[in-house]
Design a protein that fits this description.
Strand content: 15-25%
Strand order of the largest sheet: 2-5-1-6
Distance between the termini: 20 Å
Largest sheet: 4 strands, antiparallel
Order of helices and strands: EHEEEEE
Number of strands: 6
Length: about 160
C-alpha cells in the first residue's frame, strides 16, 4: 500500500458541472531528459551563505487560505482530474474566464459515472474547514459532492 494517501475532493455525479464546450485548454506534460553518466563535471568553490533580502512572496492561494492546489483556476493544474466509469465520458479544462470547465459527453449508466476530483491536499483531525464554490450548467443537472479518501471503502 502506498505511504502517500491522497485525499480527494469528489464531486460525485458531476453530471453537468459547468458543462460546456469551447475554449478548452489542452494539458501538456513536460518531461525532463534523463541524466547521463557522461556529463562533464567541474569543481565549484563553495560560496558564502547570504540571508534573503525579503520574505518569500505568498501565492494567491496561500494569501486567501485556499488549501486546494490550483483552486483559483488561473491555469489548469494536473491535481484536478476526472474519473469515469459505466459509460461516463467527460473532458476537463480551464476556460478563458478562469473557471474549471467540465464538458460531459455521456452521463453513463450509474450516478457516479462522471466525477471531478482534486488530489494533493491535507485535512487534519479536529480541523475546521469551510468549503465554498460556485457552480453552473448549460442544461438542467443534479449534482452531488463530498470529501472522501481515495481508495479503500469510499466512505465519507
Amino acid at each position: 500500500m502506498r505511504k502517500y494517501i491522497a485525499l480527494l475532493l469528489v464531486f460525485c455525479v458531476v453530471v453537468g458541472t459547468m458543462a460546456g464546450c469551447g475554449n478548452n485548454v489542452p494539458t501538456s506534460e513536460q518531461t525532463t531528459p534523463p541524466a547521463t553518466d557522461l556529463q562533464a563535471t567541474e569543481e565549484v568553490e563553495p560560496t558564502e551563505e547570504v540571508e534573503p533580502s525579503e520574505a518569500p512572496k505568498l501565492t494567491e492561494e496561500e494569501e486567501k487560505g485556499n488549501l486546494f492546489p490550483g483552486g483559483y483556476f488561473n491555469e489548469y493544474n494536473p491535481k484536478w482530474g476526472t474519473y469515469t466509469e459505466s459509460g461516463g465520458e467527460m473532458e476537463i479544462s480551464v476556460n478563458s474566464k478562469g473557471q474549471l470547465e467540465i464538458s460531459i459527453k455521456k452521463t453513463g449508466r450509474v450516478k457516479h459515472a462522471a466525477q471531478v476530483y482534486c488530489d494533493g491536499f491535507e485535512i487534519l483531525e479536529n480541523g475546521v474547514y469551510k468549503i465554498a464554490f460556485d457552480i453552473s450548467s448549460t442544461v438542467p443537472r443534479t449534482v452531488e459532492w463530498r470529501i472522501q479518501l481515495n481508495g479503500g471503502d469510499y466512505h465519507a
